[in-house]
Structures are given as structure tokens and as C-alpha cells.
Amino acid sequence: MTAPAPTHLTARGPEDLLALVPVVLGFVPADSVVMLTFGPEHGFHARLDLPPPDVSVDEWAEMLLAPARQHGVERVAFVAYAEAAEPARRTLGRLVRLFREAGIDVVEALRADGCRWWPVPPGGEPPGAGTPYDVGSHPFAAHAVVEGVVVHESRAHLAATLDPVAERLAPGRGIVVAPGPLWVWSTLARLARERAVADAGDAVRLLRAVHDDEAARDAAWLGVSRADAAAHVGVWTDLVRRAPDELLGDAAAVLAMVAWIAGQGALAWCAVDRCRTVDPHHTLATVVSDLLAAAVSPRAWDDRGRSDHPW
């Protein structure tokens, strides 16, 4: 649900907000509500699917309100992505009321359908054709390209970046003694430093090690810093795509953790989902999902989480 909001992009109006959302999420949302926060030292953003008609909006809204309260958020903006006006109006109207009752200012509430946007003031969305917008031509989009930020056309397309490749690796059951934590960390650190992917032999050994040995699995992420986390994301994305089902859960859980450290919250959620297809109760994936749901900033990793090469 969450990840840090970038501090170097300043939204000054509805068009800026609409351009900012895909950049911070990493994809263009649909049938969703996005919350951007302002005020605490480390802001964050969150995205939820629009609540279905049979779900209480108040209970659904608590998934946004709870972390906002916890982190001392002072102001928020909401964008509902929906073609139909009524579900978005109903949801945004209730969100605005609940947040203001909690003492959190709502600076903007919009509905967007991908082409046009409408303000949603108290009392409902005003009539009219809406205001056209084009996030692709916005300066924030150009900034994202310069920064190397990839914006996928949907969450499904982002999740598809973890789909298995046609030629997956063998499970490697013939490895009699799995490599230990020191080998795992040194190999991953080298691959991340070189921005390389593991060859078939090392890939199987890495996957086997993190599956068979909890200490080796911890070695795969405990030494990762925020500065090099994105490179580790690249290594583990490749490993997840090549992993056989038998070894997939642990690899996807490690990817989820390093993606969270890198501030790639949406990818971290996708990795959690990928892990849970084979191991619904994986402990590390549960840790990451709890961090994301509570909007814990990966900046906390610098303060208390990282271990400097304990092997």
C-alpha cells in the first residue's frame, strides 16, 4: 500500500497531483483511491482498490486513516481513479469527512478517469465534462525519465515483471551442502555492485541457500543499504522470474524486503503476492506486508534495521 513520497517534486494543483501519482506508485492506477500525505517528516503515499458496494466505507477508510494518524500526518490529498462518478463520489465524500473529523486537513479530492478530472467538493461531484489532462506531457513525467523511474501502464503490468520466464532453473536438489551466509552475501554484493544477474550455477545455489538455510536467507537482505537496494532489487527480480515453484517463496520474500528498503512499495506488494501464491504464510513476506500496511518508511532502515555484514 505504501512507500515514501518523493520530496523533490512539489504538487501545486490538480494537474500536478495527477502527474505525481504514477511517478510515486510506479504505475497508472485504475479503480483505486490514492492518498498523498503532507506534514510529517517523512510523507508517504497509499493506494487501495475502491471499496465494493457491500463493504463499509468507514471500515475500508480505516486502512488509510490508521497510518495517517500513526505518523502524524497533517494534510492529505485524495485522487479516485474511476470511470463511474457515483462510487468515487461516495468514497471520497466519506473519506473527506472522516479525515477532517480526525483533525487532518484534506487539501484536494479529485476523481479522474484517465483523460479528465473533476473536483469532488462537499455535496458531491459538480456537473460538467471535467477538465482534460495529460500526465505524459507533464514535467514530472520527464523528471521520472531522467531519474530512471519506470512507470508501468497498470499494476497488472508491474506485477507481470515478476512472471516466470519460459526456461526456469532446476530446483538444485543435488546440492549436498548449500552455500552459507557469507557466500550468499558476498555473491549478492558482487552482483549488485556490477549490476549483473547471476549465472545459472550461482542462481541455483542462491535460491537453494535461501530456501534451505534461514541464516543464509537473512544474509540476503540484512546487509542491504538504501543506497544499493535498487541494485539488489534487480538481482532478485531476475532470480524470482527464474525460480522453480519449489524455491519461489523465499526468493520472492527476499525481493519484497529489498524492494521495501529501496522505497519501491508497489513492487514489494507484488513480490509479497508472488510469494503467497506458493507459501501463503511465509514469515518474511508477512513482515514486509506489515511494514507496508503500517506505512513504515524505509528511512527507518538507516536508523535501526540494517546490519553491516555480520558474517
Number of extended strands: 7
> For the largest beta sheet, what order do the strands appear in spatially?
1-3-2-4-5-6-7
Tell me what the CATH architecture of the largest domain is: 3-Layer(aba) Sandwich
Could you report the average pLDDT, rounded to the nearest whole number?
Answer: 88
Q: What structural category arises from helix and sheet content?
A: alpha+beta
Q: What distance separates the N and C termini? A: 33 Å
CATH class placement of the largest domain: Alpha Beta
In short:
The protein has 311 residues and is of the alpha+beta class. The chain is 50% helix and 12% strand. The chain has two domains: 2-155, Cytidine Deaminase, domain 2 (3-Layer(aba) Sandwich), CATH 3.40.140; 161-305, no CATH class.
Provide structural commentary:
This protein is an alpha+beta fold. The chain has two domains: 2-155, Cytidine Deaminase, domain 2 (3-Layer(aba) Sandwich); 161-305, no CATH class. The protein is built from 13 helices and seven strands. It has helices at 14-25, 57-70, 85-101, 139-147, 155-160, 181-194, 200-212, 214-222, 229-242, 245-261, 265-276, 283-293, 299-305; strands at residues 2-4, 32-38, 44-49, 75-81, 105-112, 116-119, 131-132. A hairpin with a 5-residue loop joins β2 (32-38) and β3 (44-49). It starts with a strand and ends in a 6-residue tail after the last helix. The mean pLDDT is 88. Pfam families: DUF4192. This is DUF4192 domain-containing protein.
Layout of strands and helices, then pairs:
Elements: E1 2-4, H1 14-25, E2 32-38, E3 44-49, H2 57-70, E4 75-81, H3 85-101, E5 105-112, E6 116-119, E7 131-132, H4 139-147, H5 155-160, H6 181-194, H7 200-212, H8 214-222, H9 229-242, H10 245-261, H11 265-276, H12 283-293, H13 299-305
Parallel strand pairs: 4-5
Antiparallel strand pairs: 1-3, 2-3, 2-4, 5-6, 6-7
Pfam family, one: DUF4192
InterPro entries: DUF4192
Protein name: DUF4192 domain-containing protein
